[in-house]
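I have been asked to look over a protein record a colleague put together. Alongside the sequence sits a line of tokens, each denoting a local backbone shape. Please read both lines and tell me whether the tokens look consistent with the sequence. I do not need a full report, just your reasoning and any doubts. I have pasted the whole thing underneath without changing anything.
>
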Amino acid sequence: QAHLVESGGGLVEAGGSLRLSCVSSLRGFLTATVAWIRQAPGKEREFVAWISYSGEDTFYGDSVKGRFTISRDNAKSTVYLQMNSLEVDDTGVYYCGLHKVKFRIPHNFYSSSDFGSWGQGTQVTVSS
């Protein structure tokens, strides 16, 4: 049974936009910082963004800064990733995950070992 379900991926032309959703059925969602990462074929997983449990704090990877926006609606147990000005290099499978320690805010860094409960991912393909 999946606890985090990502959706919203698809095929888009470079310069276009997509909005990804991450819906959680986990009790700990409301107290967890949530992260998005991505993985392109043949490459290692790359950090994209995280948002604190309250939504007040966010942090982005350098490659997406200024183009992507992370947000959350705790009433809907959902985190969003608005992706604008998409580039071919944004292609990959996008995953969301929860910080393992409730109420913990990483404060301007990301460590993969701090997050878990990753979903199955949603494919984003950007064509040139």
In short: The mean pLDDT is 95. The first strand starts at residue 4 and ends at 7. Residues 56 and 71 are 9 Å apart (CA to CA). DSSP finds no helices and eleven strands in the chain.
